[in-house]
Write a structure and sequence with these properties.
By secondary structure, the protein is an alpha/beta fold. The protein has 7 helices and 6 strands, in the order βαβααβαβαββαα. Bound molecules: flavin mononucleotide. Flavin mononucleotide (FMN) binds near residues 90 and 129.
């Protein structure tokens, strides 16, 4: 679907790297560009906005939630969906991101539940940090997020960007744009066309049933 005629949706986009020269932040900017071109609104966040001390149940009980966790929750709740560009650290996600997810999972209602998510990664390696995304699916799916089946991992990312910030390989740039656009179609359908939402959920093998639906 082109941007023209799209019903309003808003996507939170962030890179899970704190590094100034982050390859994932560069990829996040490209995803944000594709979203705006597709006619949706972007809330561009930085992982620094969501930084929080290591989760500690005693701290939660005594002091409540740290400001980074509150900010993450607010920005999730202010968006229809989220897009994460995640570095791969030791074949998994950075601990900082898992810690942020753990804090946010303690809010009620739990903000990831039924929220759509798209996962992207960039790495200098030949597999583009893809293992971080498989690891990241586990907590998100556990929390009831609707993780988009397709993912995009940018291999040899240190050589992938041109002077203009675009991907030099136009086939890869097209693949990124089309993945983002297909995700947006799903988010729009979920928000604005309830019949499409029912079809999608049933396609995933779930039968909406109030008695057994997950309760939060
Ligand atoms: C602690 C650590 C572990 C890493 N482990 C991996 C890894 O398992 N696989 C990989 O492809 N790259 C790994 N890298 C390299 C990162 O992919 C690379 O530094 C990348 O640029 C980080 O993302 P950023 O540029 O967005 O900060 C690791 C880097 C660090 C600092």
């Amino acid at each position: 679907m082109s941007g023209e005629g799209r019903q309003p949706i808003r996507l939170l986009v962030f890179s899970a790297s704190l590094r100034a020269g982050s390859l994932n932040t560069r990829l996040a900017r490209l995803a944000a560009d594709a979203i705006r071109r597709g006619g949706a609104e972007v809330d561009m966040a930085s992982m620094a906005d969501f930084d929080a001390p290591s989760f500690n149940g005693d701290v939660e009980e005594a002091d409540g939630f740290p400001s980074g966790a509150q900010a993450f929750r607010e920005r999730l709740e202010g968006s229809d969906a989220f897009v994460v560009c995640c570095p791969e650290y030791n074949a998994s996600m950075p601990g900082m991101l898992k810690n942020a997810i753990d804090w946010v999972s303690r809010f009620r209602p739990q903000p990831f539940h039924e929220r759509h998510g798209l996962l992207l990664s960039a790495s200098p390696s030949m597999v583009g940090g893809n293992r971080s995304l498989w690891a990241l699916r586990v907590p998100f799916e556990h929390l009831g997020a609707r993780m988009y089946p397709d993912m995009f991992s940018l291999a040899q990312a240190h050589q992938a960007f041109g002077e203009d910030g675009q991907l030099e390989n136009t086939a890869l740039q097209t693949r990124l744009d089309s993945t983002v656009e297909a995700f947006m179609d799903l988010v729009e359908a979920d928000k604005h066309y309830p019949c499409a939402k029912k079809a999608w959920v049933e396609f995933l093998g779930e039968r909406p049933e109030p008695v057994i639906d997950r309760v939060e």
